From TrEMBL:
Localization: Cell membrane
Topology versus the membrane: Multi-pass membrane protein
Similarity field: Belongs to the EamA transporter family.
A Pfam family assignment: EamA
Protein name, per record: DMT family transporter
Domain EamA: 10-139, 147-279
Keywords tagged on the record: Cell membrane, Membrane, Transmembrane, Transmembrane helix
Protein's UniProt keywords contain Ion transport: no
Residue ranges crossing the lipid bilayer per the database entry: 38-56, 96-116, 123-144, 150-169, 176-196, 208-226, 238-256, 262-279
Amino acid sequence: MSGVNHPRVAVLALLAVAAAWGSTFFLTKDLLTRMDVADYLALRFLIASVALILVHPPAIARLSRLDRGRAVALGITYGIAQLVQTEGLRHTSASVSGFVTGMYVVFTPLLGAVILRHRIGRWAWVAVILATVGLGVLSLRGFSLGTGELLTLASAGLYALHIIGLGAWSTSRNAFGLSSLQTVVITAVCAIGAIPGGFSAPSTGRDWISVVYMALIAGALALIVQTWAQAHLTPTRAAIAMTMEPVFASAFAVLFGSDSLTWRMLVGGALVVSAMYLVELAPRRKFEAEVQHLAQ
């Protein structure tokens, strides 16, 4: 694929992932009025796991022993983050939850600098600050630090670790296998979370359609694309691209849900988009030298 700008294509791919995640917000909000959180997550990732294994059965077997261990670690991290985030959502508003979860854009460069010991350039920090302010304008309508916020903040840290791990360990060659095994592990983690209350399935055809869509498009396909994209991007750059999720969520809520367009959506969305624009215009060496992928 000579002549292909892999980082630019990877950013566009992550924007597509953020759009897919954003499209699920109003669907999930509606679905969770009739399903338990852990039941929904376990079923969603089970369907995604089966789909990935059926599409390419040898993918997991072809992973090296080291890659399998890494996929298990990534899957456990992501699965716990999902459960902690959704538990936090029970104790706080959706808008505050969205903002606090988006704080992975701050945690990613901080943890990346500590764990991988690489210096973060000033352009990356400017983009991080812009994205954070944009998320705040988009989401916050008052803020107090309680149980829900603390749990959601913990999930943001776990998402940041997941982003760093994918950035360090994923390659174009292992992307599918890594995604498949991660999804199996996420299913197991969420299933364990569903055990205490027992398992219940969707009761209507409409709910099944929602779950299948979120499993295949926002689950299996999104994780494959994210894993491939992060083989070509630094973790901070990837995190900034993924902060577009609440912007897309707001857009879908206005277009297909019951929300109205507000100045907060316009200003907050513009700031997040500005952070994305800065990432693409800033001196490329500042970003590409930020965190190197680890040797396989």
